[in-house]
Specification:
92 residues; 0% strand
């Protein structure tokens, strides 16, 4: 079996560092006695305010190579499209 590349190992170590930083930056949640109170339906369906920013930051760090690959795919698709157009015009 082939060995894992160094790139994969480097990405895994970066992921661990990012997760540790996110956990370290999270404020400690105080432990207190909880009281039961009625909750309006609007409060139940609304997601927490801080959650989307956390998820966006995590996904940006998780897949750093996606934008470069998408750019490369777009360039290749454009080149192929131009070649097809040139061939359609040149060949009757």
């Amino acid at each position: 079996m082939p060995k894992k590349s160094r790139r994969i190992k480097a990405l895994q170590s970066k992921r661990k560092k990012i997760r540790q930083q996110l956990v370290a930056e999270a404020p400690p949640q105080p432990v207190a006695a909880q009281t039961v109170r009625p909750v309006a339906p609007a409060e139940l369906s609304a997601p927490p305010a801080g959650r989307p920013a956390h998820r966006a930051a995590l996904s940006a760090h998780r897949y750093p190579y996606v934008t470069a690959e998408l750019r490369r795919i777009g360039i290749l698709a454009g080149i192929m499209l131009v070649i097809l157009i040139v061939l359609a015009v040149a060949l009757p």
